[in-house]
Structures are given as C-alpha cells and as structure tokens.
Write a structure and sequence with these properties.
seven-stranded mixed sheet; alpha/beta; 10 helices; about 15% strand
Length: about 270
C-alpha cells in the first residue's frame, strides 16, 4: 500500500491504541493486526496533539450514525481498514458495501481471512478507482440506487482537491434515492494554514499523502453538492466528545487554529 491507501494503517493503529484503553470508545480487536509495524510507525510520526483523540471520536460518532440510520444499504466510501462489519451489530437485512482501491481491498480481504474475521452482515468488498466509473462496480456487486443508502465518507475528502471532493459528493447525490444520508468528516481551511499543523502537513506531503484542502463553511459546501446538512459538530461539542476531547470546542470563527467537522446530511424526500 502506498500514498493515501497507506494512511489506512495509521488510522488502524489509532483504533488499536484506543481499544487498549480501559475507557475505550469502541473495541476493534483486529486493528492492531491490520495496522502492523508500519501503521504504528505512521501513528507515531503523525500523532500531533488531539489527532488520536479525534480519530477515536470520529470512529465512535460514525458508529452511532450507522446504528441509528436504519438504511438497508450502507456504503463505506474509501473504507480503508475499517472493521465495522465485524465489530458492530447490524440489523437483519442490512447490506454493507466497502469501496476502495483494488490493491487495498485485495490485501484487506486476504488479511481478514488470515485473522478469521466473522462478518455480522452481508458484506461486499468492491475495488474501484473513486475518480473513475466506480458506481458501475458497485451496482455489479448488488447495490440498488432506488433504495435509500447511508454513505460513510470517513477520512477522505481532505486528501482530494476541492474540485474532486465536490465531484464525488455531487456524484453520490445524483445516485442517491430520496432519504439517503451522507456522513463523514471535513477539515477547516484553518487546518491548512495553521502554525500548529505545519510540521504534520509537511510529513504527510513527504510521505506522498498530502492534505489538499479544507473549508471554513462546511454547511455551504455540503449544500452546494446536493447534501443539505442535518448536523455539523466540532469535536468537544455535545454529542461529539464522549469524554475524550481534551479542550473546549473553539468558536467557528476562530482563526489560526485547526478544526475538524463531523457531519450528516440527508437527500430531500
């Protein structure tokens, strides 16, 4: 795995670190094995203050979105080394699709088989280039565009140029039945220019996985892509802290400090 795909090992290592805590926000028993030594080396290299805490909060927050969504189809867009198919309890009849680069999907499937992973829902892993006609492969795997879908776009959008992020979300909107939900995370533009992230961003660039953009107006961006925001939270705000975020949430108009947004958005019925 190279470039952005390799960051999946970093986030797996962060989930393993959280799992070791006595007060863990979730338990991912496969994360350590999926991360491997490379993942933990990246975790140490990228672990700025608040980073591991945010990754834990993001995982738990999106777990809860999945739990309450009641959508019969769930698509993890750029699924990485996520193991929700194994560790979450899924309603009967839920079909999960994991979409990512073919080389990452192939490696993950082999490793999960070696680890004896037991999936708790019907699951389809789909290898595709997200900049190409990926929906054709998704349909071939059984995904039905006439059925409401929960799309999870986790840890992806800031690795794309703004035009590519917009194109992806607009494509998801055009494919989605009314009542479909989009959930994920964005970073603020302040995160791209803050002195507090300068060194971390330089490490990501050097490793071939740079962050490319952020927005200080997440609601406007999502709405312009066809996804009216239902909820946008900063870590530390009610419902997006779980006792893990170490600081009070910053006011939205604060300049010079990095910020992350967690969001849900719903296609109108």
């Amino acid at each position: 795995m190279e470039g952005v795909s390799a960051t999946a090992r970093w986030t797996a290592a962060a989930r393993a670190v959280e799992t070791r805590r006595a007060d863990a926000l979730f338990a991912d028993g496969l994360a350590e094995a999926l991360a491997g030594p490379e993942g933990f080396a990246r975790w140490e290299r990228y672990d700025n203050p608040g980073t591991t805490e945010f990754l834990a909060i993001r995982t738990r927050w999106l777990d809860e979105v999945v739990a309450r969504s009641a959508r019969p189809q769930v698509v993890l867009v750029a699924a990485g080394l996520d193991t929700r198919s194994v560790r979450l309890h899924w309603p009967d009849g839920t079909v999960l699709y994991e979409l990512d680069h073919a080389d990452l999907v192939e490696w993950k499937e082999k490793r999960l088989a070696e680890l004896g992973a037991r999936h708790r829902c019907e699951r389809h892993a789909v290898g595709a280039d997200l900049t190409g006609p990926w929906d054709e492969r998704l349909r071939a795997a059984g995904w039905d565009p006439s059925v409401p879908t929960l799309w999870i776009v986790e840890g992806l959008l800031f690795y794309l140029a703004e035009r590519d992020a917009r194109t992806l979300l607009e494509r998801l909107a055009s494919l989605s039945a009314p009542g479909s939900v989009l959930a994920g995370d964005l970073i603020a533009h302040q995160s791209m220019i803050s002195e507090f992230t300068k060194e971390g961003l330089a490490r990501l660039r050097a490793d071939g996985c740079p962050w490319l953009w952020g927005t200080d107006r997440p609601e406007e961006f999502l709405d312009s892509c066809g996804w009216p925001a239902s909820e946008v939270r900063l870590p530390g705000e009610d419902g997006a802290s779980f006792g893990r975020w170490p600081w009070p949430p910053l006011p939205r108009d604060t300049l010079g400090f990095p910020m992350n947004y967690l969001f849900t958005a719903t296609r109108p019925t």
